[in-house]
Fold:
Amino acid sequence: MTRRPKLGLLGGTFDPIHHGHLATARAAQHALGLDAVWFVPSARPPHRPDSPQASEYHRVAMIRLAIAEGAGWEVCDLELRREGASYTYDTLMTLNDGRPPSQIFFITGADAFAEITTWHRYPDVLDLAHFVVVARPGFSIDALRQRVPALATRMIEPVDLAVSSPPRIILVQAETPDVSSTGIRGRVAGRCSLMGLVPPAVSAYIWQHDLYSSGH
Structure:
């Protein structure tokens, strides 16, 4: 029997994409043997009051530069093409057309997942894919069971995932760098180096196009 390919999805504004995003994708792909990881930039994230500072064009361009060497890594512009707020529920419903939830792995950081009860269509959204929760600095995997006790019985380790398992919350312990897009934008405005925070090609792109400068 042919094994069905496993698709990972990593959403976010990617304003800009940075090493934290890449480390999270890499950790999830390694832990679960994902065949592909799609980076899904949002157009209008409902949980953020302000729109992304960089245009959709620039954000997609930076993602493509950052993921050029990733195995099976691609950009998915589904949310950019859809009108209205960018809801994970709607994205997963679209991708479930032709793919069972057991083939889809929605990747998120532990910091974002700690707020899962505030997400659109919670808890229904958790039935549309496996949720892969990767540790982030200041947000340990072990603390999640206490943060969202109602979901504790759905949480498993990667080694415990069965081939045909219904949607689960898969906890991935990993070291990811303490970096944020907000911090990067602040450093650009202050004309500070981005070394070690974003891939060199992304850093060059930001300076070349004068993104995030104080007068931009």
